[in-house]
Amino acid sequence: MTDDHRPYVLILFYSRHGATRAMAERLVAGVESCPGIEARLRTVPPVSATCEAVDPEIPEAGAVYASLDDLRHCAGLAIGSPTRFGNMAAPLKYFIDGTSELWLGGALVDKPATAFTSTSSLHGGQETTLVSMLLPLLHHGMVYAGLPYSEVELMETAAGGTPYGASHVAGKRSDRPLDEHERHLAFAQGKRLARLALALEASRREAK
Questions:
Q1: pLDDT digits over 87-120, tens only?
Q2: Does domain 8-44+58-207 have CATH number 3.40.50.360?
Q3: What backbone torsions phi and psi does residue 80 show, to the nearest 5 degrees?
Q4: Where does the Flavodoxin-like domain lie (predicted)?
Q5: Cβ-based burial of 205 (10 A; exposed 0-12, middle 13-18, buried ≥19)
Q6: Angle 178-181-187 (CA atoms, 0-180°, nearest 5)?
């Protein structure tokens, strides 16, 4: 929870060239379009094969690094990553691999979650990447929420967009901006997650 006890959705992402970050910002807008809940934007540090490499605790720019407490106290979670050979990027997986403490305590059970991704090519492994991010969320006992086909842009898009979660085709130079369909779907995904987070938060409180 935040200091004023308002529930929040954690938007947790890793972005190398900015495409996934742009998607994360659209999810934030979707979350914050719902009254009574807010978004918390967090990223993860890169990983290095060089053991001596050390990054600053606070990034020079952009979202701050996520902590386990950001995850522990969220009412909902969206995780985003560029595709790496049909899987999530190593920095995000490294962070998720370190959440066993939350798993043992059941901190994320019955909370809604979703995922989003970006690729360089149109058929670049978007759906397998989204499924790879879904697996640890299920192990945590979270309730996965994709994108329903009531979002008509899923049928109209010529680039990103899947029922497993929002996606974006960034182009081979990773400089293609989100088009209107991709922007809408990322916004809709954030809005849906916020609505579900509020409903499930109220249900958990009633059960106590």
A1: 999 999 999 999 999 999 999 999 999 999 999 9
A2: yes
A3: -135, 145
A4: 9-193
A5: exposed
A6: 80
